[in-house]
Amino acid sequence: MRAPLIALSCLVALPASAEFELSVYLGTQSAPHSRIEGENANGEFDQLIEWEGKPFEAPPYYGIRAMWWTSDTLGFGVELNHTKVYGDEDDLRDAGFETLELTDGLNIITANVFRRFPDAWGPFTPYIGGGLGVAVPHVDAEDGENDTFEYQLTGPAAMVLAGVSYDINETWGVFGEYKATYSSNEADLDGGGTLETDIVTNALNFGISYSF
Q1: What DSSP state is assigned to residue 61?
Q2: How do residues 130-188 score in pLDDT, each as one tens digit?
């Protein structure tokens, strides 16, 4: 009887010691140049593209995160990061595109692991984290004959971040962080074409968290 009672006590205690945290954030986001390769109605292309982030234009850049802190230092969770990129018109013209945007989201969905450091900086708590997942962008591409306008699952993705949080009270907190994401994208274009590109985004995020 003693062993089952001890196991039951542990199961009952686990949820009580865990902390669930929901966060939302906005921020400023950019993306360095990257190559696009593939084929569209104008033939094969292999072009270096300058990307713009335009984080404050609709639809804005944002993120939603859910974390389960199993202890004061270790947490696991999931996240949707609605990042976005716009291709430079001159570069796109050389590749046979009129427009190429991943702007209703170069959506990055990841499963995350976080490590935080309580009491390291007084009332401020530094943390680091990383995650692996997938890219689900809204592909908006026009090549003069075909118009691709749809969500696609385009490939694997990863993210890393470092930040600092501050608890306003036992329930609410605020945070700021630097976040980098990587996605390897392979999209299908209307008319039988293809598009491949690896995209890195850099962001400074500022958000609010609710714990329960």
Answers
A1: P
A2: 999 999 999 999 999 999 999 999 999 999 999 999 999 999 999 999 999 999 999 99
d(CA 141, CA 138): 10
DSSP structure class, residue 121? B
3-state helix, strand and coil shares in percent for the chain, rounded to the nearest 5: 10, 65, 20
pLDDT digits (tens, 9 = 90+) for 7-30: 334 434 444 457 999 999 999 999
Domain ranges of the chain: 16-211
CATH of 16-211, one of 1.10.287.690, 2.60.40.10, 2.40.50.140, 2.40.160.20: 2.40.160.20
Q: What is d(CA 45, CA 92) in angstroms, rounded to the nearest whole number?
A: 10
